[in-house]
Amino acid sequence: MQDNSIRLFCVAPMMGYTTPYARKLYRILTKKAFLFTEMIASKSLINSKNKDLIIENDRHNPVALQVGGSDLNDLKKCSNIAYSYNYDEINLNVGCPSKAVQKGSFGACLMKDKVLVRQCLESLQNNKIEVSLKCRIGLGRKTNYEFFEEFIDEVSKSGIKIIYVHARNAILTGISPSQNRSIPPLDYTFVSRIKLKYPNISFILNGGINSLDMVYSLLKDYDGVMLGRLIQHNPFLLKQVDKNIYLDDKVIDVNEGLIEDYFEYIKTKTGLDSMFRLLSPLLQIFFGIPNSKMYKSQIHEYIQKGNLILIEELLKNFVKQNKILLN
Ligand SMILES: Cc1cc2nc3c(=O)[nH]c(=O)nc-3n(C[C@H](O)[C@H](O)[C@H](O)COP(=O)(O)O)c2cc1C
User: Fold this and answer.
1) Are 246 and 252 in contact (CB under 8 A)?
2) Is 66 in the pocket of ligand 1 (CB under 6 A)?
């Protein structure tokens, strides 16, 4: 069995959040956590003139590129693109329930067609890059272990060795994508049961993991965990991951140097993307810190003026004054 310890702690793909800028911040905070891009539709990946900006991988490894699509030829091309941009893995999204994604025949609705999912995974394989799947445990309002098992029976014939499971159903009509992350009940036992049948596949558990203590406890029973919203809201938790999960001695200090590193990177992107997108991952630094309102409104003003230098100074000042709370 391959060594999958690199996937003990994964940061989930999140559209609008796991941008190259967020991944830069995550990588400053943890050298080890396994990262993901946002989902990128296969056609955009192939045809976009802005490819560099969308899928840039500035040595964010280990990192997976997540693709949404079901056209077998397109998927083949996507795998080669992911390889050429130095991604470690290409991941097929079979979990997104949005209407737009259903219209494009990808995302969670593909769970209805397990043979097509298997073919998609086979098309992604090019012997150069790891291929993986992210799926739900089923579709609709009722859970059904047999449905999930038969789905995994079929897709595992592709030979994939890594499956990320968002351990709740997707409901394709009547509720929004965000409700689809809370209304269908979680059932982690689906993941434990399928692991018994497929000990050679790494099943990474996702959904509802809302503290690092929960992570430590789940890692006793699962191959790895994947966290989305906890990291979206509080990315600075990542500084504990290398030491507490990967048993590395180094603890990252939140200091002025960290702010400088981040700004050094985003300064090269000004004009290419909105200032808000460039800054928003770092602005989560205020999460849970009392009396940060004054800083936030000042930053908002500087964003309006487009003054990155003043924002950097202000954040360095904030870090200096809140060192104890931040570390
Ligand atoms: C804002 C947002 C965007 C998301 N975008 C994606 C996506 O692009 N691809 C995907 O597979 N899942 C996406 N998800 C789902 C997450 O990857 C994850 O499966 C889900 O949030 C459950 O994990 P959590 O409870 O740790 O947040 C998104 C979630 C959020 C909150």
Assistant:
1) no
2) yes
